[in-house]
Write a structure and sequence with these properties.
Pfam families: Methyltransf_16. The protein is α/β, with parallel strands linked by helices. It has a single domain, classed as Vaccinia Virus protein VP39 (Rossmann fold, 3-Layer(aba) Sandwich), CATH 3.40.50.150. It has ten helices and eleven strands.
């Protein structure tokens, strides 16, 4: 895959949407999807050109232990130590490809699994919240948030092939509302999929697709992102989208301060949970600088490596980093 192909979904599609808007075509209001692959093929670029015809789709299974009472207890506002006996597992099944080097958005990237495991360790950050995932791909992180009792989980991707052929299928087959046995209070939240083009480029009926998306869904308590800022040009639209869609309301701030609970670990603070494990042309310091310019602070959590020691001994010694961002005024 060329560098240009790798960055297509996050940046060049903005020009596609702008052109479509000039022609009076839009997708946000009626739920239809901008056919960006038409433009890709017309340009002689096949985003998924590395997928060989003989490759077959796989069914992948993931199981994450959940700290049922982990983190901040709402009744005591204090840290809770979770015993092993108090844990359960989340089970997620996905259709797609396991080799992300061959299939970009049609595979599960390592960052998504790390993000899913982090949420399972801190379920109080997700429970009862409105959640959106950017660059969902096959949807592992967003589906995990749904199983952690989010109020709503909206999974988004800019590529309509990924969205229509994989993301919607995976969300539907993991929808707790479709399952016979439902835990918790018996009323699982909604899970939806929608195309989302980052940034405010492109106008139709006086609004960008991003503005139309916010008109439909509102703002979110938690925004998830993993391995989805490939090129430098994607960084600003990425943060522009987050800044526009992340909620600004904070509840329980004084109570959090009194009990020494940081914004990153407070259920009351709107936040972005971000993991970047994949190789990228975008410099990570530029990603952080862009966040800072928009008034975000952050903290870093770590997790033990998910790499197999026998297969990748060097990588197995590394810890994975999970960034949690929040607006400075929420501190």
């Amino acid at each position: 895959m060329t560098e240009f192909q790798q960055g297509w979904r996050e940046f060049h599609i903005h020009d596609t949407v702008a052109a479509a808007a000039k022609e009076g075509r839009t997708s946000a209001d009626d739920g239809n999807n901008q056919d960006e692959e038409d433009v890709i093929y017309a340009s002689g670029i096949n985003l998924f050109g590395n997928i060989q015809e003989e490759e077959e789709e796989e069914t992948m299974h993931f199981s994450f232990p959940v700290a049922e009472a982990g983190g901040c207890d709402e009744s005591t506002r204090s840290a809770v130590v979770v015993a092993a006996a108090e844990k359960k597992n989340i089970e997620v099944t996905l259709k797609g490809f396991s080799d992300y080097t061959q299939s970009t958005g049609l595979a599960v990237w390592l960052g998504s699994e790390i993000l899913a495991r982090f949420m399972a360790r801190h379920p109080y950050l997700i429970r009862g919240k409105t959640v959106m995932e950017l660059g969902s791909g096959l949807g592992l992180a967003g589906i995990t948030s749904h199983h952690l009792d989010s109020k709503t989980s909206v999974l988004t991707d800019g590529d309509s092939l990924v969205l229509n052929d994989y993301l919607k299928f995976n969300a539907n087959q993991n929808d707790r509302r479709q399952q016979d046995t439902i835990g918790g209070d018996g009323h699982p939240g909604a899970i939806e999929c929608h195309q989302l083009i980052w940034g405010h480029r492109g106008q139709s009926n006086g609004q960008s697709p991003l503005a139309q998306f916010r008109k439909k869904y509102g703002q979110f308590d938690v925004i998830l992102a993993a391995d989805c800022t490939y090129i430098p040009q994607s960084v600003e639209p990425f943060w522009e989208t987050i800044d526009f869609l992340l909620d600004t309301e904070v509840t329980g701030k004084d109570d959090d301060t009194a009990h020494g609970i940081t914004p990153a670990k407070s259920p009351s603070t709107p936040k972005v949970i971000y993991v970047m494990e994949a190789s990228t042309q975008a410099k990570f310091e530029d990603i952080l600088d862009s966040a800072k310019l928009r008034g975000f602070e952050w903290t870093i959590d770590t997790m033990p490596s998910l790499y197999e020691k026998d297969e990748t001994p060097q990588d197995s010694q590394k810890e994975h980093e999970i960034y949690t961002f929040w607006r400075s005024r929420c501190s």
